[in-house]
Write a structure and sequence with these properties.
With 128 residues, the chain is mainly β. Helix content is 11%, strand content 55%. It contains one helix and eleven strands, in the order βββββββββββα. The longest helix is centred in the C-terminal third of the chain and has 14 residues, at 114-127. The chain is elongated and about 50 Å long.
């Protein structure tokens, strides 16, 4: 199976296999860029030979699917740019700011890299 942006893959790092999302391709010879979210909330990126990567899953998002973006409820809308960019509608929410109190934030359309959507929602999409 051909690996595409947004696919969930495993790659061997030493004696362990770690899960990543494919975020891109670069170079000659071809290298695959892999990203995963760390427990601290930051992202780790590695580059690997595509032959060392084992395909696990290809998450599928349909218009209207409920998703999370940075912990906020949202709804998947569509893809842009050949599937590398996703559009989602963030639900209305309230945020508390020090010295100001709560502020209501209305719905908003957000554009984000598809691999970021996959990283945050892969477990939820796999359960469907």
């Amino acid at each position: 199976m051909t690996i595409e942006i947004g696919d969930i893959v495993n790659v061997a790092i030493g004696p362990m296999w770690n899960s990543y999302a494919v975020s891109g391709f670069s170079g000659d010879p071809q290298r695959v860029t892999l990203v995963r979210k760390n427990s601290s909330g930051t992202y780790s990126t590695i580059h690997s030979d595509p032959n060392r990567v084992r395909h696990v899953a290809r998450p599928v998002f349909k218009s209207g699917d409920k998703v999370l973006i940075d912990g906020c409820k949202a709804e998947f809308m569509s893809f842009e740019k050949g599937g590398e960019v996703a559009r989602v509608m963030l639900a209305p929410r309230r945020r508390q700011f020090t010295g100001v109190g709560f502020i209501d934030i209305g719905p908003a359309v957000v554009r984000l890299n598809y691999w970021m959507l996959v990283i945050e929602n892969s477990k939820r999409m796999m359960e469907k």
